[in-house]
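Internal tracking record. Fields below are filled automatically when a chain is submitted to the structure queue. Please do not edit lines marked as system-generated. If the sequence contains nonstandard residues, flag them in the REMARKS field before resubmitting.
Queue: standard
Priority: normal
Entity type: single polypeptide chain
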Amino acid sequence: MRFSPTPYHLVNVADGREFEDKGWTLSDPEGGKPSLVRAVYDKKKFSPRERLSGIYRYADWMPIRRTLRGSSAPVTYRSEGLARHLGLENLYITFSGWNPAIGAEMRTCSFKETEAYSVLARLAPDEKRTLVVQSAGNTARAFAQVCSDNRIPVVICVPEDSLHDLWFHRRLHRCVKLLAVPHGCDYYDAIALGEKLAQDPRFVLEGGAKNVARRDGMGTTVLSCVEAAGRIPDAYFQAVGSGTGAIAAWENACRLAEDGRFGENHMRVYVAQNAPFSLMYDSWKAGSRELLPLSPEEGRYQAEIILAKVLSNRKPPYSLAGGLYDTLKASHGDFFLADNNDIMYWMLQFRNLEGYDLLPAACVAVSALAQAVKTGKVKKEECVMLNCTGGGTLAAKARGYVFKKPDLVLSPDLPSEEIIAKVCELF
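SYSTEM-GENERATED OUTPUT FOLLOWS
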């Protein structure tokens, strides 16, 4: 089936200025205050495209030029076990991972696949530059798998301490190159490495939260929930490292409200971090738009000891216009914390109650929901969406797996010229 690119334009969230996407626009070319840009789609009604498979059934609200093979959409169902345990009447779980029994078939077991299939479908088929992706683990696994399957050249930068997350069911195609920053470095260091590499015109940064395709891919979780519930939820729960998924959820709730058939957007966005890595939590609770100070040494230490290492971003899109701070303010949301003991507790409880395993980060969201119920922030009759961003690894790994070893281990402190020269030798 021939696919026509989705029609849309971009808007600067800070000042409302509208402009056309030049193909890989990550920010307003006219500058101004730091701000996300947002996609404005020609089609205002939410209409899943049943003739398209996987995540591309939501293509009308994804800024894409083509479709790729192998995608799976998030799956939403009405909870019984966890809902009964928490005393909730209308709890909807949106699961992105591996559980074929409920129709969830994300082979890398993470909702980062929603980002990868959207971002890479935004990339022009004739793009000559090599994409650079920075990750704490799950994003790397998703982009590596999708790029391998679709023969899209990519360089992925990760901390060496996250290499245990780079498992796959078979060896990857040679178009995927993996760079690691040494033991003791964190996600921020992987970001710095990628930024130095992308100074060369032969490479292009994926863009993270600034990439509208990444956010609108992640926002398909809310579209899945609204299909199941028939309305915009009253409350939304998610664990956050950068907060990009929560921003995306709010943006799609706004689009759904504009549609008019799913109620007004009163969705309260509740997010959570894994203590002691609590940079955004601490900043929010201090009432600060600006992130509180966090030294590199302290940030690396905190990232090292948390279970949900993917939630350890020292450079999140929190402060800029349209970022997480604005999302929480606009939605009357709030922040929660879950420590490692909370995560272990909910990993066991969730499997007993719902029948499948969650990744540690998703259990941070479950803990936040339990705290919100206990403190009365969520009422038993409210429509609640729990975004379980990954799981099913036990069943997926039972099918067999191999690890991807790094092609290079490079210090982020190396000069850009040396990094570029070493990476170019890989091609």
